[in-house]
Write a structure and sequence with these properties.
Blueprint lengths: L15 H4 L7 E2 L2 E2 L2 E4 L6 E3 L6 H14 L6 H20 L7 H11 L9 H15 L2 E3 L3 H8 L4 E6 L4 H10 L8 E4 H4 L6 H11 L6 E5 L2 H10 L3 E5 L26 E3 L5 H6 L2
Parallel strand pairs: 3-6, 3-8, 6-7, 8-9, 9-10
Antiparallel strand pairs: 1-2, 4-5
Helix pairs in contact: 2-5, 3-4
The protein binds magnesium ion.
């Protein structure tokens, strides 16, 4: 057995820092990482049973309208609502816009010759009721909080999410006590741009003061999350999840097929893989 060479190290308290090796910055896939951006739905927050929330939420919204003297049979309201919603998304698709949820309620009512602007208090109230029902069908990924708690020690954290009711996302983060982890939360309907547009990602980068080359994005949907991050020059980590609707359940239309499917820079099966992956040197 070979004797180990003995090394004697003398520490001088006053000059210790000058001799200490520099702390390596976190690296992933050959890059320094300063900031981590997340998709929200089906990445950090799980929406239970796909769109199971949708009908009860729409019924409660309709009930609120009825209580405010807007009398339309539910079946008629529902049929027109879906037509209006799909047309709004079709019109906005080319420009990757995200009209606010209030707009589709206003436009639906217009079809019944009821003229209420999107900011009318009755519409705002109805949208809030829809949101409250939706929130009941969500829960955080069981590992999310522990992982975010760990990551926040080293990285700036943010959210970039496609959703038609921005205030509902803020309510949801508060409800699940997750708002504390994020320095920026960008919701598509707040800026009328949706993933995969680079504009929504760039807004988050600006707020975090982090360049694309030092940022990674984590999401579950290749066509919006991976493609969007790559459109912005950000490396993308795909979390493998059972499929959900394109925008986190706001609508049931099928995502447009895009070929070829964008490939992530890395794939994980669970959020718990992130801390060690991001700290790899
Ligand atoms: Mg998602």
């Amino acid at each position: 057995m070979r004797a180990q060479a003995k090394t004697t190290v003398h520490f001088d308290n006053n000059s210790f820092n000058a001799y200490a090796p520099p702390i390596s910055p976190p690296r992933v896939m050959g890059m320094q990482v300063e900031a981590v951006l997340f998709d929200l739905f089906n990445t950090l927050i799980i929406v239970e049973s796909g769109d199971a929330f949708y009908m009860p939420a729409l019924q409660k919204l309709h009930k609120t309208l009825t209580q405010n003297n807007i009398n339309i049979p539910f079946e008629d309201f529902k049929n027109v609502y879906f037509k209006v919603r799909d047309k709004l998304y079709a019109d906005a698709a080319q420009r990757l816009e995200e009209p606010h949820f209030n707009t589709r309620i206003s436009r639906t009512l217009q079809e019944f010759s009821i003229d209420l602007q999107p900011q009318h208090p009755t519409i705002i109230k109805a949208t809030n009721i829809f949101c409250n029902e939706f929130l009941k069908h969500t829960h955080p990924d069981p590992e999310a909080k522990a992982v975010l708690q760990e990551l926040r020690k080293t990285f700036k954290l943010g959210i970039v999410s496609n959703f038609a009711i921005p205030q509902c996302v803020h309510k949801l983060l508060k409800k699940h006590r997750m708002n504390q982890y994020f320095q920026t939360v960008i919701i598509s309907a707040a800026i009328n741009k949706r993933k995969p547009s680079p504009i929504i990602f760039q807004k988050a980068l600006q707020n975090l003061d982090s360049p694309p080359s030092k940022t990674v994005y984590v999401g579950d949907t290749p066509t919006t999350d991976i493609q969007g991050a790559h459109n912005t020059g950000i490396k993308a980590i795909l979390i493998n999840r059972p499929p959900l609707f394109e925008d986190g359940t706001q609508h049931t239309q099928q995502p447009q097929k895009q070929h070829p499917k964008p490939h992530p820079d890395y794939t994980i099966q669970s959020l718990t893989e992130l801390p060690s992956l991001l700290k790899k040197t």
